[in-house]
Amino acid sequence: MSLTESFRRRTAPQLHVGNKFRSLPKSARWSIGAIIIAACYFTPYWPDVPVLGWIVDTPGTSFENVLTDQIMMFILVALGLNVVVGFAGLLDLGYVGFYAVGAYTTAVMTSGQFSWPWIAAMPLSILMAMIAGVVLGTPTLRLRGDYLAIVTLGFGEIIRVFMNNLDHPVNITNGPKGLSQIDPISIFGVNLGQKLMIGDFEIASVSLYYYLFLSLVLVTILISHRLEVSRIGRAWMAIREDEVAAKAMGLNTRNLKLLAFGMGATFGGVSGAMFAGFQGFISPESFSLMESVMIVAMVVLGGLGYLPGVILGAILLSALPEVLRYVAGPLQEMTGGRLDAAILRQLLVALAMIVIMLMRPRGLWPSPEHGKSLTAK
Predict the structure, then answer these.
(1) pTM above 0.90, yes or no
(2) Beta carbons of 78 and 299 less than 8 angstroms apart
(3) Pick from 272, 291, 270, 268: which is nearest to 107 by CA?
(4) What are phi and psi of 203, to 5 degrees?
(5) How many helices (H) and strands (E) does the chain have?
(6) CB-based contact 320:353 (threshold 8 Å)
(7) What is the pLDDT, as a whole number, of residue 68?
(8) Looking at per-residue confidence, does 165 or 62 come out higher?
(9) CATH code given to domain 3-372
(10) How far apart are CA 275 and CA 292, in angstroms?
């Protein structure tokens, strides 16, 4: 069985939380959604609550930094990859390349000789990432399965190596040293790199970034949902299930695939622009193969093509390494310091992923509709 065939394989029906949620009255669903959004916007203040503060405490790092730099960022990237992998069924192992294109475009335009404002550089980052998506999609239109995965994997590595060596004869990316002094994000005159005072109330810089990232996540969820229920989304899903049958039914699979690559790359460009503005420094090491594999794992582990599942997978895999700091530290002490804590954390994350996929082969929160026709008697 090929990689893509096993990637698409259906299993026995499981308990679907989505079906129960959809059976609720519309007013109840709106109320639950409003409560969840309100809880998300008050998340930076959870450590101040006695019980929640003990639960969300992250040793050695800031809880708000974990929220912004890891969880929110990975949710954005995972939602973008879900368009390509989850909706269209195109196994893309080089999605981090689009992420890198968006980040480096913003970094180059906001630092050095250009000194553009971040808000002006972001549209260019989105455009460059979309062009990169179309460039990748064009030669891969005839490829399927494992061959498509290998080509996209090579694309991600080419982008990383290209950025790593683009420091001569003209220095654009500063090579392996990376780009620093990137201007912080500024929107409507509000510099998110500085704290904001509203009367006597102070909002920290990292909280401002979190609110911006959360707003972008909500907008991305809305766009992804509208794409999913649109004619284009249904056409993507037809290609995902059976490309030959979709083509026989009159769908232009060529253009639809290019659109999927371009749309998914657009989300990657937005995420990269946000990453560069938040970090203030980027280097090729930030866009390694492991990052791309981790993003794919988030989509597959959560629930392929199902937005709540993708979000859940992104939250778990981005927060799990920080939570496992509690476990890796004592284990390192038990071995007398002979094992590196970072390696132990990676091992524990890998074991957790294996256990989850064995117990829930279709993901933690799979799509309720997926496989319904096969189980109907």
Answers:
(1) no
(2) yes
(3) 272
(4) -115, 120
(5) 18, 4
(6) no
(7) 65
(8) 165
(9) 1.10.3470
(10) 15
